[in-house]
Amino acid sequence: MDEDTLLTEAPPRRSRGRPRKTFDERDDGNRRQALLRAAARLFRQNGFSATSTRDIAAAVGMRSGSPFYHFENKEALLAAVMEEGMQRALAHQRARMAEAVAASPAPLSARECLRVLVRGHFDNLLGPESDHIPVMLYEWRVLSDEQKHAVNQLKDEYEAVWVPVLQALRREGALGGDQRVARLMLFGALNWTAQWFVPGGAASLDDLTDTTLQLFLKDAS
Amino acid sequence: MDEDTLLTEAPPRRSRGRPRKTFDERDDGNRRQALLRAAARLFRQNGFSATSTRDIAAAVGMRSGSPFYHFENKEALLAAVMEEGMQRALAHQRARMAEAVAASPAPLSARECLRVLVRGHFDNLLGPESDHIPVMLYEWRVLSDEQKHAVNQLKDEYEAVWVPVLQALRREGALGGDQRVARLMLFGALNWTAQWFVPGGAASLDDLTDTTLQLFLKDAS
DNA sequence: CCTACCGATCGGTAGG
DNA sequence: CCTACCGATCGGTAGG
To answer: What is the DSSP letter of A47?
Structure first.
C-alpha cells in the first residue's frame, strides 16, 4: 500500500479532531465572547450547578482547562454572563427609547413610554441571543455579595427609567395598587414570560405587549 | 478512679454523637416526612444541583446513604417534594374556598372568588412551610417527562378553579387582555413574589392581596 | 490555549 | 437505617 496515495485520496478530514483555528479567531476577545454565549445558553438550559465547565469548553471547541485562561473560576463566568446581559439590555432600552422619541412629533405620553419599555423588555428577555437575562433572573443566588452589588447597579439603572413612567400613570389613575408592590408585580408578570413563552408560537412579542397594557392599564380598551 | 461514679456524675451527654432516636421516630413515615421537609428547604435555598443528598441526610441526622432507603434517587426525592407541595396547596385552596362560601350569605361574586384564590395562593407560596411550591416553580426542568406529567395533573387541577373566575371577570369587563396570556401574566405576578417577598417585612400577605386586586381589576377603588 | 493531572465531592450500593 | 465503599465527575492548576 502506498501510504502517500492513500492519504492523498482520502477525503479531507474536516471534522477529525479539534477544529482548526484560523488565525484571527485568536486574540481580540473572540473566544471570550464565544464562552460567554455558550455559558449563557447552557446555564439557562440546565442551570448553573448542572452545567460543567467542561460542557462549556466543549461547546466552543476548547479543552477542559481552557475556560480558566479567560475566567478566574466558574462563578466569575456566571457573573460575566449576567453583566454582559444587563449591559446589552440597558443599551437596547436606551436605543428603543431614543428611537421612539425621535419618531414622535409630540412628547411621548406615559402610556406610550410604557409601551416602548415593555416591548423592549420582551426583546431583552425573549428575543434572539437573550439567554443572559433569564440566567440573571434564575441564578441570582449563586453570586457573591460583591458580584450581586455590581449587577445590581445595572439593574437599578434599568429600573430607574421605569419608575417615573409608572408614577405618572399612577397619578393619571391608569395604574392601581401600592407603588412598589405594583412595580414588582408588573416585572413579575413580564419576567415570568421567560418560563412559558415559545418563540415562533401562537403569540408574538407585539401580542404580549398589547396584552400587558390592556391588563395593567385602567382604560386602555 | 471509680469509673462507675465518674459516669454517674458526668452530665447526661445529650448532644454527643448522633442524636438518640426514640422508638416512635421510626416507621410511620416520620423520617420520610423529615427528609421531604429538609429537602424542600435546601433545594429552595441552594438549588437542586447544588444540594447534595449528604446535606439533606445531615439535616435530619441521617448518614449519607440513608435517604436512598426512603427514595430511589435524588430526582425522586425532588419529585416527591413537588407532589407533596401541590397536594397541600390543593387542599388549602379547597379549604379556603369552602370556608368563604360557608361564611357568605349570598353566592360569592367573581371578584370575591378571586380575592380568596389570590390570598390562598400567597399562603401556598409564601406562608410557613411553603418551600415546596417555589422548588416546584424553579426546579421544574430537572423532572423527567413522566414526573412532569404527574405534577402537571395537580397543577391543572389547581388552575382549573381559577379559569371560570377569570372568565367571569373578563365578561364583566374587569379584566383585560387576551384570556390565556392574561392568566399567565397574573400567575407570573403572583409567583414572582417568591423572589422578593420577605415574611415579616413591610407588607403582609393581605397587603399583597389588596394590591393584586387593585392592580389587575378595572374598577376596584 | 493544550496536556496531564489532582484532590474533593458526589450519587448510589451491598450487606447487614 | 448504618458501615464501608466505589466509580464517575468536577473545578481547577502547573507547566509549557
So the answer is: -
What nucleotide is nearest A76 when CA is compared to C1'?
D11
Identify the pLDDT of residue A27: 52
Does domain B74-216 bear CATH number 3.30.70.2660?
no
pLDDT tens, A62-72? 999 999 999 99
The DSSP-derived string for B154-207 is: HHHHHHHTHHHHHHHHHHTT-S-S-HHHHHHHHHHHHHHHHHH--TTSS--HHH
Give the separation between CA A123 and CA A205, rounded to whole angstroms: 8
Q: How far is CA B121 from the centre of its chain?
A: 10
Q: Nearest to residue A70, comparing CAs of A25, A21, A31? A: A31
Nearest-CA distance B218 → chain A (Å):
6
Q: How far is the CA of A167 from the C1' of C5 (A)?
A: 59
pTM for the model: 0.88
Q: Is there a contact between A130 and A123 (Cβ–Cβ < 8 Å)?
A: yes
Chunk chain B into consecutive blocks of 10 residues (it has 221) and report each block's average pLDDT, rounded to whole numbers. 34 39 54 97 98 98 97 98 98 98 97 98 97 98 97 98 98 96 98 97 96 92 44
How many CA atoms does the CB half-sphere of B55 hold within 13 Å?
16
Which triple of cell numbers denotes residue B82? 413537588
Choose among B55, B196, B38: nearest CA to B129: B38
Residue in chain A nearest B178 by alpha carbon: A211
Cell numbers describing residue A102: 425621535
The answer to whether strand C lies under 7 Å from the CB of residue B54 is: yes
Q: What residues of A are in contact with residue B176 (Cβ under 8 Å)?
A: 211, 214-215, 217, 220-221
Q: Which of B141, B188, B196 sits opposite A189 (nearest CB)?
A: B188
Which of A205, A45, A214 has the alpha carbon at shortest distance from A121? A205
Minimal CA–CA distance to A135: which of A30, A54, A52, A42?
A: A42
Domain-by-domain residue ranges, chain A? Answer: 74-216
Decide if A120 contacts A93 (C-beta within 8 A): yes
